Amino acid sequence: MKIGIFTDTYFPQVSGVATSIQTLKEELEDNGHEVTIFTTTDPHANEEEEKDIVRFTSIPFFSFKDRRVAIGGKHQALKMARQLGLEMIHTQTEFSLGLTGKYVAEQMRIPCVHTYHTLYERYLHYVAKGKILRPSHVKIMSKYFCNQTDGIIVPSEKTKQILLSYGVSQKIAVIPTGVNLKKLSAKSDRDIRCELNISAHNIVLLSLSRLAEEKNIEALLHAMPEILRRYPSAKMLVVGDGPNRMALEQLSEDLSLKEALYFVGEVKSSEVNAYYQAADLYVNASSSETQGLTYIEAIAAGTAIIAKDCSYTNMLIYSGDFGATYHTDKELAQTVIQYLEKSHSENQEAIERKHLLQAISSEVFAEEVMDFYETVLDTYTWDKEFSS
C-alpha cells in the first residue's frame, strides 16, 4: 500500500508524536509498504539526507516556538500525492497539514485515517495564555475534524472516551503506540552514571520530557527533599528542554537540590535508552499524557516507572510489577520510597515483562494500524457531503 502521513510535527523536533510516526513508518516499510511523510520545514532539518519526506514552508506555532505550522502548500501536496499514487492518507494533526491531508484525500477520493494524539485542553495556555481558546472550542474543533475523516486511531482508552464525550461518532480504534524493543533493550555504549560521576550505589531517578507547564516537573522537584531524607545520596536526571527550564533551575536552587539534580538538556531519540538504563526509576508527574510513550520506552529498557494513576498506567504496571502509581502530587515522594523499599519476585516479573513487551512492540503496533487501514478500505465509499 502507498501511504501518505501528514503531520506538523516530525524530526528533528523531539516529541512522542514524532517518535510514534517514525516507528510506524519504519515498520510499515519493513512490511513492504511505501510511506511518504508530508511535514513542516525545520531550521535544524538536513533535507539533503532525508528520504521520503516532503517539507512545506512553515512558521513557529504561537508561543509553542519549537512546534511549527505549514503555510499553504495544499496544491503542491495534491500534485505530489498524485505522482506517488497514494492509496491512503493518515493525518497526525488537526492543524495545517492535517487539513491539507484531508483536502488531498477528498480530491483523490481515497480514505483519510486520523490519529488523535493530544488533549488540547491541557495546552490552551500556549495560545494567548488561554484567554482566547476555551475547552468548549477544543471540543467543537475535535468533533468536527474527527467526524470528517474515515476512521480514528487513539493511543489509549482514555483518549477514546474523551472523544466520545466530545460527540465524535466516527469509528475509533484504540491502538497504543509501539516501541522498537531491540533499540531500547540493547545495552547502550554510553555509561551515563560514569559520565556524570554518579556511583553505581546511588539511587537515580529519571525525568524525560519537554520542560513545560503541562508536564508538571515541579511536582518531581518538590518531592525530592522527602526522598533525600530517606536516600541522602539519591540523584535525579532531568532530561529535556523547554520554556520552563529556567524556572525549574531556580526552583532547584530554592529547594537546595543543586547537588542532587542534573539538568541534562535535550538528547537525541537514539540516545534515550542510555538514560533509561542508567536510572533505577523513571518518574513522570504529568496528567496530560495520551499515550505515555516514555512509559513503555522505560519498561522496554528495563526501568520501572512511577506515574499518576489512570487506566493506561495501571494497565502498564500490572499491579506493581513494573512500578507504581499515585493519585496526588503529595503522594509522589512516598510512592517512590515505598517502591524502592519493596521486594520483587524476579521470576514473576520476567514472565509479566515478556507478555507486556510483546503487546507494546512496534511490530504489533504496525500490524494493528495496517489492519485498521484494511477495515477502512473495505467499508470506504465516496459519500462526502462536501469537500474543501
3D structure, described in words:
- By secondary structure, the chain is α/β, with parallel strands linked by helices.
- 41% of the residues lie in helices and 18% in strands.
- The chain has a seven-stranded parallel beta sheet with strand order 3-2-1-6-7-8-9, sandwiched between helices. A six-stranded parallel beta sheet has the order 12-11-10-13-14-15, sandwiched between helices.
- Strand 1 (2-6), helix 1 (16-30) and strand 2 form a beta-alpha-beta unit.
- It comes from Pisciglobus halotolerans.
The CATH homology group name of the largest domain: Glycogen Phosphorylase B
Q: Report strand order across the widest sheet.
A: 3-2-1-6-7-8-9
DSSP E strands, number: 15
Average pLDDT rating: 89
Task: Provide the CATH top-level class of the largest domain.
Answer: Alpha Beta
Write down the overall geometry. globular
Provide the number of structural domains.
2
Quote the beta fraction: 15-25%
Sheet of most strands: 7 strands, parallel
> What is the H-and-E element order?
EHEEEEHEHEHEHEHHEHEHEHEHEHEHHH
CATH topology of the largest domain: Rossmann fold
Fraction of residues in H or I helices:
40-55%
| Structural class by sheet pairing and helices | alpha/beta
Number of helices: 15
Domain Glycosyltransferase subfamily 4-like N-terminal: 14-182
Organism: Pisciglobus halotolerans
GO molecular function: hexosyltransferase activity
Pfam families: Glyco_transf_4 (PF13439), Glycos_transf_1 (PF00534)
